[in-house]
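Lab notebook: predicted structure, single chain.

Context: the supervisor wants predicted structures on file for every construct in the current expression panel, including those that have not yet been purified. This is the next one on the list. No modifications to the sequence; it matches the entry in the shared construct table.
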Amino acid sequence: MNLAKVRYKQFSQILKNIGENEGGIDKFSRGYESFGVHRCADGGLYCKEWAPGAEGVFLTGDFNGWNPFSYPYKKLDYGKWELYIPPKQNKSVLVPHGSKLKVVITSKSGEILYRISPWAKYVVREGDNVNYDWIHWDPEHSYEFKHSRPKKPRSLRIYESHVGISSHEGKVASYKHFTCNVLPRIKGLGYNCIQLMAIMEHAYYASFGYQITSFFAASSRYGTPEELQELVDTAHSMGIIVLLDVVHSHASKNSADGLNMFDGTDSCYFHSGPRGTHDLWDSRLFAYSSWEVLRFLLSNIRWWLEEYRFDGFRFDGVTSMLYHHHGVGQGFSGDYSEYFGLQVDEDALTYLMLANHLVHTLCPDSITIAEDVSGMPALCSPISQGGGGFDYRLAMAIPDKWIQLLKEFKDEDWNMGDIVYTLTNRRYLEKCIAYAESHDQALVGDKSLAFWLMDAEMYTNMSVLTPFTPVIDRGIQLHKMIRLITHGLGGEGYLNFMGNEFGHPEWLDFPRKGNNESYHYARRQFHLTDDDLLRYKFLNNFDRDMNRLEERYGWLAAPQAYVSEKHEGNKVIAFERAGLLFIFNFHPSKSYTDYRVGTALPGKFKIVLDSDAAEYGGHQRLDHSTDFFSEAFEHNGRPCSLLVYIPSRVALILQNVDLPN
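Prediction complete. Output recorded below exactly as produced.
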């Protein structure tokens, strides 16, 4: 039987079960409206939890002097517990906004456990406390959104961002700082989408937001929920959509302020025993076949869409979810036997299909991106065809290729065919997000592309008052070329990690014991590109104009490029996409006069982007007033061709001005 049909049948069956037992996925995904703690219209309090392994459940906090047992929950069917606390006689709020709460669990073995509700909307860590405190978040006035969601962009240009490191100061930056200082930069650079990392609350800052402790809480280290809502709303006012980096692949092992051992057992939200632990990540793994786990995770998706108005998600750790082996120690050759068999966690795949179905049902213009290194077929195909339902997948082989070239090969030994293959090797009709580097490449133990290219000379030779050294010259030229060829050839969307557009030096490292809790590498030095005497501005200018040109011509939304040349000896790559002619000369020293390049149509061509221009730190070897005429002279499989001067280490985009823009 067709395995895509099998997967679709399993998805349809669970969706049908949800309809029959819960009144449909719309109601099922509203778990946060009843679970957790809620103020009732009469001033009372309604509380609900799922704790199947608990002997007893109680609510305690500031409101009752921390008496652990004075407010017991009533046991319901299927491991659920509920509590109604009537209002005070004067109808005043029983649990005031900002007061502390805890769920008390008595376990089957007689332990008394103090827990944070899995549905908590705000948690904070005060002073030197190790653990987070659950704060009842019920402000008198909620944030009122002023701007509607922007329309889904035809081309996706993503600025991957982390609020905490967005300042040049050695501290955790705030939502307010990001809204006021970083959003205008993103808009000015021509990005139309922000991917926000490390928003879901995580106790350990250095986990980069990937060890989630409270799934419904926006991280309080950057500010309040209302300040995050204002950030998203402000981005929308600029025409920028905002994606959340959602982590449903695993959860923190913390029990005092996380989901682990919530009801006193090692199961509850997770698989029991070894299957419930990711050995490499030292974290817990969800039981995606569990009814209440599905309710929790699908409600979490809806919460971020509706409460904060996110426009979609980048799903983290999809490879780990898809396979029982979690991708650990596995190589993926592309053989179908790797993707269809007992090693696939079909329950996790069904959950991802349900999540995508929910997202696109609630917000048809929303976007979902899968972080999958395995290349699972049909992950980005429609669910109706048995696919995973994602809109895009990350082209994760591309940054690895650039790092490999820079680390292992001399410039003159770069293989043009290998570069083109890596940039174009994607499944038909499955859209990819191309990127030269993301946060992964900048983490400690590795370094940014700019630092691979220029290393220690970035500290001494980036001033425009000093002559170009060979290292800085090479670094600046290749940094632009790598980005443009990735942007133009690598996918149907493009991603850049904050700061890397201008060649941010060094690497990323969060405060931890190993670095004496230093913030030195956990910041973004945007002032470097604002300094007119430093060469960072050239890379920033190029990134801006590259994005603006894509906005004008839409090559990311166009069909895949036609590559007419990948010449190993000359180190030249040429391709056409969206009616533009892209030409790259990667040779470190050779320039070519009257170099013939194939093209589809006759006409007059003009340069519309030139990496060698003065404003990009180039050598100004090309005259932009020159007209290039293509003629009916077949070359490299193209019916027409033109002659062009291509200096060494230069990227060019030419436009046929005889065609309508």
